[in-house]
Design brief:
With 264 residues, the chain is of the alpha/beta class. It has helices at residues 11-20, 30-42, 61-69, 82-89, 127-137, 155-164, 176-184, 205-215, 231-242, and strands at residues 51-55, 74-79, 96-99, 112-118, 138-149, 189-202, 250-262.
Length: 264
């Protein structure tokens, strides 16, 4: 494993964590909705797909958006977390719901015209496999639109924990340069690939950590501290985070990668 993918979380733990968060996710998923809406906008006036795939579909929020945008298209929702799929089925949007992994999709070759995936593929260990699977299941002329996270995400929280105890408390993500290199060598044509920061603000650290837990996106790294974190270390982290305070509150920065690729 190279440094672009080193020490990413175990996907079985990711699936279990997001399954547990299925019923709380939408209540705190403001960033996720904003990112997905921006990704949809990047598709512009895309031709109408006969079949679309919402990959890492979660609660199905964007499955419903895709169905509204292309009501005559057949939609397929795929997620690694069974709990998310169970919840999404009750909300509608897609025609089919499948448990599946972006690195090994349970789909035949050339079966979809559009793959939409927002804030899911950052959990995949091998993005090369994600891109290869996208290339495989897309029809010629099909598009792969993704939003992911890269290095620098939650940098304020990471720096505050490092000041407190030096241990791994914040999820690690790939470098943007790794995304650039892998997309360039994917066999897909890169239409757009950018990194934009999204900054959220919280009145206190508890607000941020509560939201991460409700999203299922709290610390899933290998090497994370086991057991309860002592009060003294938590107090030290909170004190360090106060050094980042702005008039709007405590900032939490997400470095979001947006990509639109097409199959020749």
């Amino acid at each position: 494993m190279n440094d672009a993918t080193a020490a990413l979380p175990d996907k079985r733990q990711v699936a279990a964590s997001f399954s547990r968060a299925a019923h709380t996710y939408d209540s705190v998923a403001g960033l996720q909705r904003d990112v997905g809406e921006h990704l949809l906008a990047l598709l512009g006036g895309a031709s109408v797909p006969a079949r679309w795939l919402d990959l890492g579909s979660g609660t199905g929020y964007f499955s419903r958006k895709l169905a509204q945008r292309w009501p005559d298209a057949a939609g397929l929702a795929v997620d690694i977390a069974e709990g998310m799929l169970t919840h999404a089925r009750t909300q509608g949007g897609a025609r089919w719901y499948l448990a599946g992994d972006a690195e090994g999709l349970p789909l035949r070759d050339g079966c979809v015209d559009l793959i939409f995936t927002s804030l899911a593929v950052q959990w995949c260990e091998d993005f090369t496999k994600v891109l290869a699977e996208a290339h495989r299941v897309l029809r010629p002329g099909g598009r792969f639109a993704f939003a992911s996270l890269c290095t620098g995400t939650l940098g304020e929280l990471r720096a505050s924990w490092e000041a407190a105890d030096g241990q791994v408390h914040v999820n690690r993500f790939r470098r943007f340069e790794a995304y650039q290199q892998l997309c360039d060598h994917s066999g897909l044509r890169v239409e757009a690939l950018v990194c934009n920061p999204h900054v959220l603000h919280y009145p206190d650290v508890r607000g941020l950590t509560h939201e991460l837990k409700a999203l299922g996106a709290h610390n899933l790294n290998p090497g994370r501290p086991g057991g309860l974190t002592g009060r003294a270390r938590i107090a030290a982290m909170v004190a360090a985070y106060e050094g980042f305070r702005q008039p709007a509150g405590l900032p939490a920065t997400y470095q979001v990668v947006y990509g639109v690729l097409s199959k020749p």
